[in-house]
Amino acid sequence: MQQYTVTFSPDNVRATVPAGTSILEAASRAGIALKSTCGGQGTCKRCIVQVKDGQVTCERDPLPETLRGEGYTLACQTKVWGHVTVEIPPEARLAKHRVLLQDEAPASEAGAAEELLGGRPFQPLCEAVNLQLDPPTLTENASDWHRLRGALRRHRPEEYSTIGLPSLRELAESLRRADWQVKVVLAQLKGASEVIRVAPADSGGVYGLAVDLGTTTVAAALVDLAAGEVLGQAGTYNRQARFGDDIISRVIHATGEEGGLEELREAALASINEVAAELVEKCGIAPEEVVVATLAGNTTMSHLFLGLTPKYIRLQPYIPTTAEYPIVRAWEAGLNIHPAAPVLVFPSVASYVGGDIVSGTLFTRLSESDELVLFVDIGTNGEMVLGNREWLMACACSAGPAFEGGGITCGMRAMQGAIERVEVDPATSEVRVKVIGNTKPVGICGSGLIDALAKLRRAGILDRMGNFVPERAGRRLRRGEDGYEFVLAWKEESGTGKDITLTEGDVKNLIRSKGAVFAGIQSLLKTLELQLEAIDKIIIAGGFGNYLNIPNAIEIGLLPDLPPEKYQFAGNTSLKGAIQVLLCRQAWEEALEIGRKMSYLELSAGNLFMEEFVSALFLPHTNLELFPSLAGEREGGSNHWPGA
Amino acid sequence: MQQYTVTFSPDNVRATVPAGTSILEAASRAGIALKSTCGGQGTCKRCIVQVKDGQVTCERDPLPETLRGEGYTLACQTKVWGHVTVEIPPEARLAKHRVLLQDEAPASEAGAAEELLGGRPFQPLCEAVNLQLDPPTLTENASDWHRLRGALRRHRPEEYSTIGLPSLRELAESLRRADWQVKVVLAQLKGASEVIRVAPADSGGVYGLAVDLGTTTVAAALVDLAAGEVLGQAGTYNRQARFGDDIISRVIHATGEEGGLEELREAALASINEVAAELVEKCGIAPEEVVVATLAGNTTMSHLFLGLTPKYIRLQPYIPTTAEYPIVRAWEAGLNIHPAAPVLVFPSVASYVGGDIVSGTLFTRLSESDELVLFVDIGTNGEMVLGNREWLMACACSAGPAFEGGGITCGMRAMQGAIERVEVDPATSEVRVKVIGNTKPVGICGSGLIDALAKLRRAGILDRMGNFVPERAGRRLRRGEDGYEFVLAWKEESGTGKDITLTEGDVKNLIRSKGAVFAGIQSLLKTLELQLEAIDKIIIAGGFGNYLNIPNAIEIGLLPDLPPEKYQFAGNTSLKGAIQVLLCRQAWEEALEIGRKMSYLELSAGNLFMEEFVSALFLPHTNLELFPSLAGEREGGSNHWPGA
């Protein structure tokens, strides 16, 4: 088939693709991530690019005539039929993102893993032993494996050793290359020790890869299992994004399209392999020195990673194929580490409480706590666990993509160009914004949205119902196509040449999102017949939690009105738990136990959640008694205006 | 690249191949098996074909000018550079072969497996249970696997159930397709029961595939594990033959050529998949109903099947990678049966005593015998096991390919056109032959060669040293290029238009072969300080054994001079043992135990074997005391001339 070159500016990178390929696909092949929320359906209109030169056709172009005249088109709907040059506007691009790693500061990447063990014993999943074997002779002619197993048995009489096919295929050459003086890397699994790798004595290291496979981003850490040290961390976008931003679009693609499940599996895998490659290169080790991996992800991600259908996760009554996953080998899963490396996928609890939550529960030691702890992970879904050493109960609610910038007119993820903080002068209704990367703003991310809501409410520009109050709003409020909109940044100040606004519709979306999270928490408490005050500690985790301003979040009614000292940020607990298991095999048994022990509250059964949700669709809530700290406040009152 | 069509007559089949492909390769793609002993090196000169039309080049043509002038060429050395028509002479073709199955007669293919159990309990490796599951609801929302495992646990409280990734990938749809009324096929392995397949209740069967993977041929049986019945058997050539007829050529190809190991693995697999496909079609079942496989082969075949390097099997001190093989799944191995089906490869004892011998030992119940039993399997290698319930000792010697027709001027495998019996009139030195398929002879196979040797010796035409005696031989003896040759069939009677002869060189080859086998037996006995008379029973197994005339084999000194009633033919014990394990999982534990218990006598260590070998290079032997039954015989004496 005829091949054409697509050149992307300003990057000046190229991809060679067959005639008829979409520009979205070509960009993906050129390594450029474009925004696409709808999975290439032509409906989200995020992937707008400008065709500068060359022959293209566009099957379905919903853009206005004026834009089309200048060559603007949707990358997903436009096919190339010649050599083409494409300009990518900044707002269409998924910029380098602050992927949430172990801790907020990317500077402190390396460090002792002591805090990650959190008091557990250092018993890594894989260890190395050095052995000297007697070379075979005509009369001492046992097989290679028999010889090695015998030496292992003498070294560790209490252990039973096994070996899998990939390692067995290498064994003969490995032993001879090492001249029978070998370093044997063993994985301790299910009471047996499995030979993963045989190398010359005192050569190479023993490393593990911990992966947090998120719907949006993939974060990973490379861990030195001999030293007990995190050597490095890296993150990237989940390449599944081109099949849709949210879980549901992906489930639909996986189950509705021929080969869709395999495409999603491969996209997740490619994302993980990308970060794994970056880490081994950065740390100067060989991929085959990485001999074990742990992976925590939500139930759908875990299913997709293993090629299990997510179909019934989406359909009532929401049933996953399994909650505990078989331990697979890297070669089966397709991970580019040692082919025999075991890959431990954290167990799920239910379709919408997955391994990331189990990993977080493990890491925060909630299940060993005497106090009553609420663990909240806010992303597209809000997941929460309430419990202590006696019991654990979890639930999940669909918060929607608003806090990640989805479904919001100028929403975007927390990356360069995103407004992350907003200040509103209650006197003048003037606005100041802080932008990630200190560049011109191109949109607004979750923490900026919470700030905006809280500050606009406090300034009296939004009322308790989430309606704009024109008489308080000043010149920044205007009527747009779909009702009122408030200008956060004028086009002269913005990086897109357009105003950055918050519409009345955006506010309603945000209220629904925050209402769902709060209703989830309330549902857990009511089911257990507990009051908010019973909670001793609230742990905030997840991609969103690290940038959250707690007082503002309380003010809009997203989080319970409890004293700030009860709140604690735990960072990416999904990744931290995955690291912990690498360093302590006992922790894996506990993770399995947590998965089995945690009960699941299905919010779609019964009316409880829906009643709580409706009550929460106010700023902060219908029932102001739940927010006593806001009771004394004068609307539009004390607002700190920096520099004022 | 330019593609050309190669048309083969008389079959009138075609292959389309890239320019520069060898005719040998083109024939293989067209499904025509040509003889090739040297693995395409151009040295064995077996793959002679006649190019009728089209452009070819021949890099290395060792054929005489007269043949070349008629278009004859070596298929392996001749490349096509245009559309070509090729005639295949009958002698170059690997004809349909009497692949040795469970029993000699191909008619008795189906039958109860009772005799195959040999008194062991009927406890098949896989069984089905029918279960009725409660469909999930919003409040009873356990995962599919949890639900199924719970039902299994209620059904069989004493068993722990597991499931592998391929079956887990199917589980969600299988349960719903069956509307929660399921037939669950379980494999009983290592104390756990593993879910292999989930189907609608009362649908489908439970079948196992037993495979004897031989160097030359592949034989397989399809077994109904519910009924305990062998449904059918089939055999084919091992497609590895195009890389060389013998083990050593294949090991060299596997270890010397880039990708050679993978080529051999795939060739073995293709052969097995061919017979498996034939069997499932013949028996009218679906491939995924075959839920377990057992495979017995020599150590090199087992290594190649699993992709383990055979390199050090060939090099002193002859060390295999392993003697016990991990249980792999069909999808890992590449077998076209249910992807999750466990594949049990019989353990080896040493590099030259493999799983086929362990399987045979299992089937013949040698390791449970009170009597002293000698088990002999004669192929290219001669393998023997001596022992009883107390102990087992095995050895292997290189018999060479002579008994399979290799290295013999007019030698061929036991297939249509092969002389399988020879009678010699001691008075006239005239010869009568019996040909497989009752066609014109094109060569002579192993049993014919043994007959010829015995009858020529008895007629005084061969002396004890294996030299021809011209004064006794008559008009059939003549001087050829390399000394004397004896004409077994004149060209007017033959299917090739050439005389079929036995040369002095052939006789020496045969004497070396039979001497090696006898010396192996003697070495075992001497190592154990036992006399021939101590043997209570001799079991003859293997591809050759079924067509062996015992008195003639004794007469030439191939087998010990013991009363005929001590001899017993057991057929393809390798396949029979593989079937037995399918029907009785206890037998698998015994096979593992036999592999561990059997000691191995390495004949290349020390001088014992070499001394015995030299003494055995006579007809029948240097030491005639070992052959008392032949002592009274008058040379050239009583020979039965049929019809005389």
Strand content of chain A: 25-35%
Please outline the major beta sheet of chain A. 7 strands, mixed
Residue-averaged pLDDT of chain A, rounded? 89
Radius of gyration of chain A: 27 Å
| Morphology of chain A | globular
Regions with little confidence, pLDDT below 50 for 5+ residues of chain A:
96-111, 634-644
Number of helices of chain A: 19
Beginning-to-end CA distance, first to last residue of chain A = 65 Å
Greatest interface: A-B, 45 and 45 residues
**Oligomer state of the chains in this structure:** homodimer
Tell me the number of strands of chain A: 30
User: Reading side by side through the largest sheet of chain A, how are the strands ordered?
Assistant: 8-15-14-13-16-18-17
Structural class of chain A: alpha/beta
Assign a percent range to the helix content of chain A: 25-40%
Could you walk me through the main structural features you see in this protein, from its secondary elements to its overall organization?
- 2 copies of one chain form a homodimer.
- Chain A is an alpha/beta fold.
- Chain A contains 19 helices and 30 strands.
- In chain A, strands 8-15-14-13-16-18-17 form a 7-stranded mixed sheet.
- In chain A, strand 22 and strand 23 form a beta hairpin.
- The longest helix of chain A has 24 residues, at 260-283.
- The relative contact order of chain A is 0.10.
- At the A-B interface, helix 4 and helix 5 of A face helix 4 and helix 5 of B.
